[in-house]
Amino acid sequence: MKPAKPVKAETTQRSMRAATLAEIAREAGVSAPTVSKVLNGRADVAPATRTRVEELLRAYGYHRRRSEAARSPLIDLVFHELESAWAMEVIRGVEKVARDEGLSVVLSESAGRLTPGRTWADQVAARRPHGVILVLSDLDDSQRALLTSRSIPFVVLDPAGDPGADVPSIGATNWQGGVAATRHLVELGHVRIGAISGPSRMMCSRARVDGYRAALETAGLPVDPELIKAGNFHHEAGHRLGLELLRGPDRPTAVFTGNDLQALGLYEAARELGLRIPEDLSVVGFDDLPVARWVGPPLTTVRQPLMEMAEAAARLVLDLGRADRAPGATRVELATSLVVRSSTGAPPA
Amino acid sequence: MKPAKPVKAETTQRSMRAATLAEIAREAGVSAPTVSKVLNGRADVAPATRTRVEELLRAYGYHRRRSEAARSPLIDLVFHELESAWAMEVIRGVEKVARDEGLSVVLSESAGRLTPGRTWADQVAARRPHGVILVLSDLDDSQRALLTSRSIPFVVLDPAGDPGADVPSIGATNWQGGVAATRHLVELGHVRIGAISGPSRMMCSRARVDGYRAALETAGLPVDPELIKAGNFHHEAGHRLGLELLRGPDRPTAVFTGNDLQALGLYEAARELGLRIPEDLSVVGFDDLPVARWVGPPLTTVRQPLMEMAEAAARLVLDLGRADRAPGATRVELATSLVVRSSTGAPPA
């Protein structure tokens, strides 16, 4: 049985009379309070009963009327992983909107899995937040159905996979950023330009490298697959792959690193090999974390407006929960912009 | 009327029969359910009634029996400010323990005030978390009484003020860290050693500078007040005060910066003045944020085990909430340690 997707359920409810809680209880052969308990994520329901009720809720595209759902003054914010300073910018953006609205932020980490665990979804159902923001993470179909049946809206921030047109999401113009970073290097006179990408399963990282390729091709420069390394957005990858790129016989004179942490790893690789930045090697990052201004030399990078994106995601998810304020677009990409500092210059003669 | 402090209330409850909810209701001239509403942070109670009930709860050192208080699977984590990477380490530590215990973390920022707002305390009372962890922040007496009367334990992490002996808290050996940083510079041969401290209202920042002084004095070196600047733990202060220190006629050959972000600001000041690190200037930070390894040159710093401290705070607050597991010590200082990297060396000849 294919579970209802959010938008689908919305349509269903408008076009035909939705099943009531009492009808679902009757069909499941349980009492209405038992169905309520399942909806509220209570633990005192037998697993088999719970599964049966959830299936019927999904099959009927049931979703709780908003007035029924006494919501807690909370927003759930779920991270794929809480590593980097990246996460901090997002937390601050969501926290800002939450504070303005008198809400608190519940933080979870899906601990490296790209969809948060089942227990997590039950907990969310039990605490009934105003909305859920997923960072670089997505829900599986049953989790979506679970949130939809409780009228808990959700928004994906900077999707790693392809969230589908029916999932509200906020991103940045990653492809455009890859173009701007690479074009800047081309304009400085670089011809051999390397790239260290993020993981290829993340759409944002593919988009950045595609932008890099497009800039090279439109400038009439060859794309050398030897100069493109697949990283993982961590400092260590920038260091390791940086050494690979820089130790070759015909090393690049510039590298676009896909994010700032990999740029810092590349800085370390350059230091180890005695290469000066920008005299021997130009480096462009992506993100514009606070640290980009503080390293030596200050890093030229593509600014991703992380805090503003997080604010936009928080506002969108709250709007989705308000019957009276239908949001306009449910897929928004905020613009990236190149910030030129001191890590880029003309190629060595 | 002096409100009961946590430990005090504990003693009171053990040594004499506590007032019941019904008795408090009678004395306040309201119904028992109204007292319950106040305890649960419900909004539908007249402000005057609420104040009267809160006063009686405090006067009687009332606190809700644990079995009465159906707690939510949450831990509250309150930051003074969410700036720096510092916060991220703490969040990760608390999140780790929370995940192990099946709890979620609610994050708030007291937005620059050193005690979180009154509304915040009401929200916490309403959501009934397992405990509250305050980072560089403290509660006023009425907030303490409010949490105590709801049996919501709290722990202060790395207290900024003096939390008092009756407040459970986790810190680090800041003074010892200041000694280790400065002694390292003395052993390298430095004589003119400057310091950029954090704000003097924070005990941790006072302790670090006191350690610096103690190390100089025990080495028989003079303490020059001109070489001690009061910063605020931000990058900008490190830069600004670094320029002040380095532009003087008899500039220091080494600086202990109080934290890592100020060290990065000092790096920038040195770059602007054409001073090389460590050839012309040695720098020691404090914290050992991830970025300390990534800057050029990698920063010698005092490692503060932030994640472990946050884990210890989370475990302590959960233990405080368990009748069956009385925690041993309620003031713990985890050890700091010097991490020598490449930003320190012998003074210029």
From TrEMBL, chains A, B:
This is LacI family DNA-binding transcriptional regulator. InterPro entries: HTH_LacI (IPR000843), LacI/GalR-like_sensor (IPR046335), Lambda_DNA-bd_dom_sf (IPR010982), Peripla_BP_I (IPR028082). One of its GO terms (molecular function) is DNA binding. Residues 19-73 form the HTH lacI-type domain. Keywords: DNA-binding, Transcription, Transcription regulation. It holds the Pfam family Peripla_BP_3.
